[in-house]
Amino acid sequence: MRANVLKRKLNLRIKRKKRIRAKISGCDKFPRISVFKSNKTLYIQAIDDVKAVTLAAINGQKIGVKANKEGAKKIASEFAELLKSKKINQAVFDRNGYIYHGVIAALAESLRENGIKL
């Protein structure tokens, strides 16, 4: 793709991200689960926006999963176990400007299947 097309796509994602973040925030009982997706891996964080602290984080590269639907399911199940160990059962899902489709949707569904209410 040309550089200007990539720049336009990134700018549109940033606009969606800001619009979403204006409406949601997390606290210690209901943290915000933020997702970042690159071409190679996924990153997930549970964030307490009141104290500006990351409560839990997981990196798909350290687990050895790729940024596809199967990798999203595996990383979500491990992240759900990490959240349960910290006694967090409910959260707010922040798709970070990504369209709720494919990998992002598989990640959210897997979190729900593993007992995290979104």
Automatic annotation (TrEMBL):
InterPro entries: Ribosomal_L18, Ribosomal_uL18_bac-type, Ribosomal_uL18_bac/plant/anim. CDD domains: Ribosomal_L18_L5e. Pfam families: Ribosomal_L18p. One of its GO terms (biological process) is translation. One of its GO terms (cellular component) is cytosolic large ribosomal subunit. The keyword Ribonucleoprotein applies. GO terms for molecular function: 5S rRNA binding; structural constituent of ribosome. Keywords: Ribonucleoprotein, Ribosomal protein, RNA-binding, rRNA-binding. This is one of the proteins that bind and probably mediate the attachment of the 5S RNA into the large ribosomal subunit, where it forms part of the central protuberance. Part of the 50S ribosomal subunit; part of the 5S rRNA/L5/L18/L25 subcomplex. Contacts the 5S and 23S rRNAs. NCBIfam families: L18_bact. Belongs to the universal ribosomal protein uL18 family. This is Large ribosomal subunit protein uL18. It comes from Campylobacter cuniculorum DSM 23162 = LMG 24588. The lineage of its organism: Bacteria, Pseudomonadati, Campylobacterota, Epsilonproteobacteria, Campylobacterales. The gene is rplR.
